[in-house]
Every structure is written in C-alpha cells, then in structure tokens.
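Figure 2 data, in text form.
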Amino acid sequence: MGFSGDPNTGGGAGGGAGSGAATSHVAGGAGGSGVVILRYPDAYTISETTSPTVLTFNTYTEGSDKVTVFTAGENGTIQFST
C-alpha cells in the first residue's frame, strides 16, 4: 500500500502497485491536505469575517512580521486591520 502524504503540507502520496490481475493490486495513499501561509507587517491584525467561522489558523510573530498559517477550512473570508 502506498503511504499517505503528510497533513498540512500539500505533499503527494505514495503510488500503488499492481501485477495486472484485478485481485493483486495495491492502492496508492491519499495526498496530504494543503496549507496557506501569509506573512505580513506586525502592524496588521488578521481576523476571520466568515460567520459561522470555517477556518483553522494560528498566528505568530517572526521578527517584525506576523505569520498566519491556515491548516483547514474552505470558502472563508479574512480581513486585515491596523
């Protein structure tokens, strides 16, 4: 069996294998879920404006910037404010 991709990396999965007989194939793994990373000046704050909230993210400071890492959700809306 092919191994699945790592979560929140967008990594690909391992491929399957087969010998041509329908009963002797091995399925490939699932691809890893994606990730979105935003880096922006520390003066800004990011917030989700979707209601109810649908995004999963963490924000941390790196030097004089903020970095927000989104690991789950779809069709969400964010807003920057100062």
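Caption note: Residues 36-81 form one domain.
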